[in-house]
Amino acid sequence: MSSQKPKVVISERTIGRLSLYRRLLNDLQAQGERNIYSHELAAMIGGTAAQIRRDLMAVGYSGSPTHGYDIRELVLSIGNFLDAPHMQGVALVGVGNLGRAIMAFFSGRRPRLAIAAAFDNDPYKINRVIHGCRCYGIEDLSRIVQEQGLEVGILCVPSQAAQDVAERLVRAGIRGILNFAPIPLRVPANVYVEDIDMTMSLEKVAYFGRQHANKEGLK
Amino acid sequence: MSSQKPKVVISERTIGRLSLYRRLLNDLQAQGERNIYSHELAAMIGGTAAQIRRDLMAVGYSGSPTHGYDIRELVLSIGNFLDAPHMQGVALVGVGNLGRAIMAFFSGRRPRLAIAAAFDNDPYKINRVIHGCRCYGIEDLSRIVQEQGLEVGILCVPSQAAQDVAERLVRAGIRGILNFAPIPLRVPANVYVEDIDMTMSLEKVAYFGRQHANKEGLK
A19 and B176 in contact by Cβ < 8 A? Predict the structure, then answer.
């Protein structure tokens, strides 16, 4: 029942699953559920009970064999493990169509992990407040990141600008970047990058979905 | 120089890279570029020239050793290979914060692959036009998908509703789903699913970025 952080190295997949468990458990809690067994959680995500137990042992939480996990305590334990003890501010760069969509999506979702400042080089956007977040010029990036102690970057600029902006983020001290620009970033080994390419994903779905439909003679 | 479709099976990664090449080539064309060598394209994406040539041979296009690839022709060849000969309509389900952000992002981007109808169970959203797209009740999903010949689904509903909506999409004849709900879908083998979990990605970036910063003593 302790929530001490163990010293083991946790894989990317485990961190991803912990993030997922927490959201599913939050949903269950909102529906009035209080307890859950590892096999029930496993059924929700299509995994095994053994994997769930292993993942949750990594956060230092173990349930009771008779009542399963206490959902409220488990959510807190995962939070203690996943979240920073302080608020982690996020810098979003590129306030175009995609950037604004992402600001709208994350707006107000995670109090401890919120977009605190946005950056663009369009003078019409600078100093505007968009989805509750002030927009600055790109030349102020380093200063604002340091003044506000921002720790995470979200990159929504066109591909031609992505590498330059990534280097500015790294120079400013940012070590984690969520990259929506459709180009691989070259960053030092001490910077963690996660790529999301929504257009590529939609084009893959359209292509392979069409292949399946053709095979069935649906189209 | 032909753009005949070869009969080989193309991997998911190749389709993803073709989608990426096309966008990079479109950007170059917009900047006035006319030709590109495989090694130049390789440098842009951090790959090898041999891989670029192999990928582009799959679409039935080969460049000239002296001038490289003609960018305009290459964009057309990739389009002939990736895109449906007809327009592929997309059905988006779940017009919440995330769904609206995704509608805003894809609005007007791909004439051959556009969100044609949105679905929600909130009576205040039904019959509204959001980002140029009409919103219908979820009970009309099957009828609209069939009437409009929609081929691709985008799932933006809460996790509890995702499996049910996925099954409705499959019953309506959809064989490709882009799933933003943070839960794995159970679908028949003839349905292609691609998952995007933006919250999970941001939480991973925050976690691993923090680990790196801690190691460096930045925080």
Answer: no
Identify whether residues B44 and B95 lie together within a single domain.
no
Q: What CATH number is attached to the domain comprising B180?
A: 3.40.50.720
**Is residue A191 located within the same domain as residue A95?**
yes
Please report the beta strands in A47-186, taking only residues with DSSP state E, as ranges in sequence order.
Answer: 69-70, 88-93, 113-120, 129-130, 133-137, 152-155, 176-179
Which of B20, B173, B206 is nearest residue A200 as measured by Cβ atoms? B20
Residues sharing a CB contact under 8 Å with residue B208, sequence separation 6 or more, in sequence order: A12, A15, A176, A192
The CA distance from A98 to the nearest CA of chain B, in Å, is: 5
- pLDDT at residue B64, rounded to an integer: 77
Cα B77 from chain centroid?
18
Distance from CA of A63 to the nearest CA of B (A): 23
What would the mean pLDDT of B40-53 be, rounded to a whole number? 90
Q: Do B67 and B97 belong together in one domain?
A: no
Domains identified in chain A, total number:
2
Q: Is residue A206 part of a domain?
A: no
Instruction: Tell me what percent of chain A is helix, strand and coil, each rounded to the nearest 5.
Output: 45, 20, 35
Which contiguous run of DSSP H or E holds residue B118? strand B113-120
Which residues from B are below 8 Å from A107, CB to CB? 97
Give the pairing type, strands A176-179 and A152-155: parallel
A140 and B CB contact within 8 Å: no
pLDDT score at B2: 45
Within a domain: residue A1? no
pLDDT band of residue A8 (cuts 50, 70, 90) is low
In this prediction the ipTM stands at 0.90
Residues B173 and B95 in one domain: yes
Mutate to test the interface with A, among B86, B183, B204, B219 (most CBs of A within 10 A): B204
Global pTM reads 0.85
